[in-house]
Write a structure and sequence with these properties.
about 80 residues, alpha+beta, three-stranded antiparallel beta sheet, about 15% strand
Length: about 80
């Protein structure tokens, strides 16, 4: 019988905190993330620090890039990869 991976449902503001947590854990600066993702550094700042602004796709990309998590929406379920 296969081992089930864990899942969790999150609010959008929790995605912002996770994006920042995993960026920092990966040792990446906002400028490095922006360069890697082809965006401008202020977008990374807003994705992490302004949960009320719509940067959901960027938050999901950051979480997936810098963690072992996969984000599925629109309910923002995260699963181990």
């Amino acid at each position: 019988m296969p081992i089930m991976k864990s899942s969790k449902y999150l609010a959008e503001h929790e995605l912002a905190a996770l994006a920042k947590k995993y960026r920092l854990a990966a040792g990446k600066t906002k400028v490095e993330v922006a360069r890697e993702m082809g965006i401008k550094p202020p977008s990374v700042h807003h994705a992490e620090e302004s949960p009320g602004q719509s940067f959901t796709k960027l938050r999901c990309r950051m979480i997936e890039a810098y963690s072992n998590l996969k984000v599925s929406g629109p309910f923002f379920r995260i699963d181990e990869k």
